Amino acid sequence: MVTEIAKSTEDVVQLLPQTRRLRALHTIIRDRDADRQDFVGYAGQIIRQLVEAGMELFPFESVDVETPVGQTYRGLRVSPRVCGVSIARAGESMETELSTIAPGVRIGKILIQRDKQTKLPHLYYSALPVDIASRHVLLLDPMLATGGTALAAIEVLVDAGVPEEHIVFVNVLSAPEGIRAVQNRYPHVRMVTSSIENGLNENAYMQPGIGDFGDRYFGTDATPDDHPPV
Q1: What does the pLDDT read at residue 121?
Q2: List 114, 135, 190, 216, catalytic entry
Q3: Does the N-terminal peptide bond of residue 89 adopt cis geometry, omega within 30 degrees of 0?
Q4: pLDDT tens digits for 49-107?
Q5: Which of 8, 16, 195, 200 is deepest in the core (most CB within 10 A)?
Q6: Start and end of every Phosphoribosyltransferase domain (predicted)?
Q7: Which CATH class name applies to 3-62+78-218?
Q8: Global pTM?
């Protein structure tokens, strides 16, 4: 179940219900003193909610099954033409929850890094299912800040033949600036997030923010001068 936000973004950006439980999870992972075990565990709970909400936006098909008492249950199953694509490295933190919810799902990967000279995102690597043009794609990246990386990743998918309306972009945190950037260039890409932040500071860090999600999740050190997510 997802909740639509402002009218200007309705049908495009959807926000998880802002329950007390979700706020409690955010309180833990946003704490600068949270240890890695807590960060990974509680972030995983949020990611699972996000992935389930994203899957809800995909097509379902009717399927009948026979129950143990010999009755027919007229049910549903998500279309088998679904795959995930993670934006490395932070997006890889979301793969486990997707695989748990949809065992056997195919997962592609895109590596984009910001050029130190131009400050622009640069595609270094992509590995996608060969039939991705015919699939619905859950694009995974926990952080949407300026939108530069997101736009580059979506461009890779569109160039591979994926229609915009077949892409659902899933984030733990989203900045308004990034949301607008994606909407302006790819208006039919839908987005699911657990938090819309107040905005970006002069260094392009989200406020109130969470720090570098990938570094905190994978246990690598980062300094304040490291590049923020884009």
Answers
A1: 82
A2: 114
A3: yes
A4: 999 999 999 999 999 999 999 999 999 999 889 999 999 999 999 999 999 999 999 99
A5: 195
A6: 17-220
A7: alpha beta
A8: 0.90
